[in-house]
C-alpha cells in the first residue's frame, strides 16, 4: 500500500464513553467482514486462539476500507492503556500513529481521563478528530459538549462527528474523517530500516510477539535484526498483521504496523520504545526519546501460608515472563519468613499483579508497605540504594538521605481546587504553578514520590469525586530530613511495618499507625502494647486491651444462628492472620495501617 493510502490512529476516551463499542463498529463496517463467510472465518480464528488459551493482547487491528472516492485505504487502529502508571507506554504508542479520534460521551461531556490522554495525543503532534458519541440517548447534548471540548481542551470542535456507536449512525462519517482529516504517515522506503518497538507480549505458542511500526525501510521474514538499545540480535521468524486474527505477510514497509516473532525468550528482552534496525546496513540514528520503564514502587509479597513459597515463586516467574516492567528478588523477613521484594511502575501496577497472584494462582498474600528507592549517603562516603526500609543502616552511620521527587500535574474543576491544594500541601508538596484552562484549574506540584505511592491517587479521586486527572514524571533526588520509623507490637519490632518518614511528620504518622493497628489487631487474652519508635525512642503508643470473655458470651446464649455467624466470622478472620510472637496480625493491617486520612 502506498503511504498516501495508509492511516494510523488511536482512540482517546474516558472510561465508558464508548471506545470499545466504536472500535467494534469500525471493524464491522470495513471490507474485512463485508462478506458473511469472511465474518465467520474471522470469528473462527479468534475462537481457536481463545481455546488454545492465547490472550489476544494486541488491541491492534488493520482494516481495509474502500472510501466514498472509490480508493482503497489501510486503516491501523492501535489501542492504548489508560492509566497514569503506564503513561510512558501510552506516550510510545501515541508516537506510533499520526492521529486520534477523541471520543466524548455527549450525555456526559469531557472528563478527567480524557484530558490526560488527549494531552499525550497533542504532545505526539496528532491530528485530532472529535467524536460525540451516544447521540441516540435523550440526554445527549452535542452543542454543549462541543463547546466544552473547545473550552477545556482548546481544539476546534465545530466539525465534531455525531455518532451512535450503538445504532451505527455516523460510523461512515467517522471512517471518511479518518481518511480525509488524518494525515498519511511519512517514511522512506529506500532508507535503512528504522522501526519502533511499540509493545510486546508472551504468547504460549509463538513465544514473544513484538508489535512494530515501520518508520523507514522494509522488514521481511528471515531478516537479521538488531534492537538498538539492548543490542540484542535476532532473525525474524514470522511477520504479519492483525485483522484482528494474526495473518502472515511477506514484509512490512514504511508507515505500516504489524507484528514479528523472532525466537525472543522473554518479554524483558524487548524494551518498549526501542528502535529495531537491520544488523547489516542498519541506521545509526535511533528514534528519539527512548527511556526504559523502570520500577519505582517496591513492596514485599509474602505467602500467608509459608508452605506456598514455591508456588509463589512459580507464579511470580510466570507473570514476569509477560511483564518486562515488573522486577523481583527473594527477600527474608524476620516477621514474615520467605517472600519476594517486587518492583512496580506504580500502585495500580502493584495491585494488578497482586490480584492476579491471588486469583489466578490461588495464593493468599501479605503485601508490605509500598516504598520508593532512597539514596542513603553514609558517613564513610559510600552510598546505598535503599529498596526496603527494614534495611536502613544505623542512623549514627548515616550522613544524609535523599528521596525521589516528582513533578505532578493535576487538572481539576474549580470547585474542588481548595481540597486538592490542601491534599498536596499535606503530602509535603511545593506548588510550582497554578493556571486556569477553560473553567478548570491546572496545578503543578513538586512532590516526594513516597507521599504519592500510598494512597494519593485514591484520595485525589475521592476529594474531587473522580473529576481530577493526575499525571507525573520523576524529577530526581533531593535531600530531606528522613528517618526510619519502626513499629513494635507486643514489644517486638515488626520489620514489615517499618517505614521511612519525614522527621517533622513522624509523630503524626506514628500516632495514626498505632491507632489503626489498635483497631485492626483483634484482642488477645493479654494486653498488647503497639508502639512507634525512631531509633530507640518511642514516639507513639496505644494499648489493645485484653479479651476477657468468649466472643459469643454477649449473645446471651439465645440465638444459635447469630452465634454460629459470629464464630464463622471469627474463623474467616483467622484465615488471613499471621502470627508474630504471640500475636495474630491480620493481613489487611499491613496496607491499611499505612493509608493516611
Ligand atoms: P472501557 O472499555 O470500560 O474503557 O469503556 P469503553 O470506553 O470502551 O466503553 P464501551 O464501549 O464499553 O461502552 C460503555 C457503555 O456504553 C456500554 O454499555 C455500551 O453499550 C454503551 N454505549 C457505547 N456507545 C453507545 C451509544 O452510542 N449509545 C448508547 N446508548 N450506548 C452506548
From TrEMBL:
Residues 4-186 form the Tr-type G domain. It is found in: Cell membrane. It catalyses: GTP + H2O = GDP + phosphate + H(+). It holds the Pfam family GTP_EFTU_D2. Its EC number is 3.6.5.n1. Keywords: Cell membrane, Elongation factor, GTP-binding, Hydrolase, Membrane, Nucleotide-binding, Protein biosynthesis. It comes from the Bacteria. One of its GO terms (molecular function) is hydrolase activity. GTP binds at residues 16-21, 133-136. PROSITE patterns: G_TR_1, G_TR_2. Its main location: membrane. SMART domains: EFG_C. It is a peripheral membrane protein. NCBIfam families: lepA, small_GTP. Belongs to the TRAFAC class translation factor GTPase superfamily. Classic translation factor GTPase family. LepA subfamily. Required for accurate and efficient protein synthesis under certain stress conditions. May act as a fidelity factor of the translation reaction, by catalyzing a one-codon backward translocation of tRNAs on improperly translocated ribosomes. Back-translocation proceeds from a post-translocation (POST) complex to a pre-translocation (PRE) complex, thus giving elongation factor G a second chance to translocate the tRNAs correctly. Binds to ribosomes in a GTP-dependent manner. This is Elongation factor 4. The gene is lepA.
Amino acid at each position: 500500500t502506498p503511504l498516501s493510502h495508509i492511516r494510523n490512529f488511536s482512540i482517546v476516551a474516558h472510561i465508558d464513553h464508548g471506545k470499545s463499542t466504536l472500535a467494534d463498529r469500525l471493524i464491522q463496517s470495513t471490507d474485512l467482514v463485508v462478506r458473511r463467510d469472511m465474518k465467520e472465518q474471522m470469528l473462527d480464528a479468534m475462537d481457536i486462539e481463545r481455546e488454545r488459551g492465547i490472550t489476544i493482547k494486541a488491541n491492534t487491528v488493520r482494516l481495509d476500507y474502500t472510501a466514498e472516492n472509490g480508493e482503497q485505504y489501510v486503516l491501523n487502529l492501535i489501542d492504548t492503556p489508560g492509566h497514569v502508571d503506564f503513561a510512558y507506554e501510552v506516550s510510545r504508542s501515541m508516537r506510533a500513529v499520526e492521529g486520534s479520534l477523541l471520543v466524548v460521551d455527549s450525555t456526559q461531556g469531557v472528563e478527567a481521563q480524557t484530558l490526560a490522554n488527549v494531552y499525550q495525543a497533542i504532545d505526539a503532534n496528532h491530528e485530532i478528530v472529535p467524536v460525540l458519541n451516544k447521540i441516540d440517548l435523550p440526554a445527549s447534548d452535542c452543542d454543549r459538549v462541543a463547546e466544552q471540548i473547545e473550552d477545556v481542551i482548546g481544539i476546534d470542535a465545530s466539525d465534531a462527528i455525531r455518532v451512535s456507536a450503538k445504532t451505527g449512525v455516523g460510523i461512515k462519517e467517522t471512517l471518511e474523517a479518518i481518511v480525509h482529516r488524518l494525515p498519511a504517515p511519512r517514511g522512506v522506503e529506500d532508507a535503512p530500516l528504522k522501526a519502533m518497538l511499540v509493545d510486546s507480549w508472551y504468547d504460549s505458542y509463538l513465544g514473544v510477539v513484538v508489535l512494530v511500526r515501520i518508520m523507514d525501510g522494509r522488514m521481511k521474514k528471515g531478516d537479521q535484526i538488531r534492537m538498538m538499545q539492548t543490542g540484542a540480535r535476532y532473525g525474524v521468524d514470522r511477520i504479519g498483521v492483525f485483522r484482528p486474527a494474526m495473518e502472515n505477510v511477506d514484509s512490512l514497509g514504511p508507515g505500516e504496523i504489524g507484528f514479528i516473532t523472532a525466537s525472543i525468550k522473554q518479554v524483558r528482552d524487548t524494551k518498549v520504545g526501542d528502535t529495531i534496525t537491520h544488523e547489516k546496513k542498519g541506521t545509526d540514528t535511533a528514534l528519539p526519546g527512548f527511556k526504559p520503564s523502570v520500577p519505582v514502587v517496591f513492596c514485599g509479597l509474602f505467602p500467608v501460608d509459608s508452605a506456598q513459597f514455591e508456588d509463589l515463586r512459580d507464579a511470580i516467574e510466570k507473570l514476569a515472563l509477560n511483564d518486562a516492567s515488573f522486577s523481583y528478588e527473594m527477600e527474608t523477613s524476620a516477621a514474615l519468613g520467605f517472600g519476594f521484594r517486587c518492583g512496580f511502575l506504580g500502585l495500580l501496577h502493584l495491585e494488578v499483579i497482586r490480584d492476579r497472584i491471588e486469583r489466578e494462582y490461588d495464593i493468599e498474600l501479605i503485601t508490605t508497605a509500598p516504598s520508593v528507592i532512597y539514596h542513603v549517603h553514609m558517613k564513610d562516603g559510600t552510598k546505598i540504594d535503599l529498596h526496603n526500609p527494614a534495611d536502613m543502616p544505623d542512623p549514627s552511620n548515616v550522613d544524609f538521605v535523599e528521596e525521589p521527587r516528582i513533578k505532578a500535574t493535576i487538572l481539576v474543576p474549580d470547585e474542588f481546587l481548595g481540597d486538592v491544594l490542601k491534599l498536596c500541601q499535606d503530602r509535603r508538596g511545593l506548588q510550582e504553578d497554578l493556571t486556569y484552562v477553560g473553567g478548570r484549574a491546572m496545578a503543578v506540584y513538586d512532590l516526594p514520590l513516597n507521599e504519592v505511592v500510598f494512597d494519593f491517587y485514591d484520595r485525589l479521586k475521592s476529594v474531587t469525586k473522580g473529576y481530577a486527572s493526575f499525571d507525573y514524571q520523576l524529577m530526581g533526588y533531593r535531600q530531606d530530613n528522613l528517618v526510619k520509623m519502626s513499629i513494635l507490637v507486643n514489644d517486638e519490632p515488626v520489620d514489615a511495618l517499618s517505614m521511612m518518614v519525614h522527621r517533622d511528620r513522624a509523630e503524626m504518622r506514628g500516632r495514626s499507625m498505632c491507632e489503626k493497628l489498635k483497631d485492626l489487631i483483634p484482642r488477645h487474652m493479654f494486653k498488647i502494647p503497639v508502639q512507634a519508635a525512631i531509633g530507640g525512642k518511642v514516639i507513639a503508643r496505644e494499648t489493645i486491651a485484653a479479651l476477657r470473655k468468649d466472643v459469643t458470651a454477649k449473645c446471651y446464649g439465645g440465638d444459635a444462628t447469630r452465634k454460629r455467624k459470629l464464630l464463622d466470622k471469627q474463623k474467616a478472620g483467622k484465615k488471613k492472620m499471621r502470627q508474630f510472637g504471640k500475636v495474630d496480625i491480620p493481613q489487611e493491617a499491613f496496607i491499611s495501617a499505612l493509608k493516611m486520612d
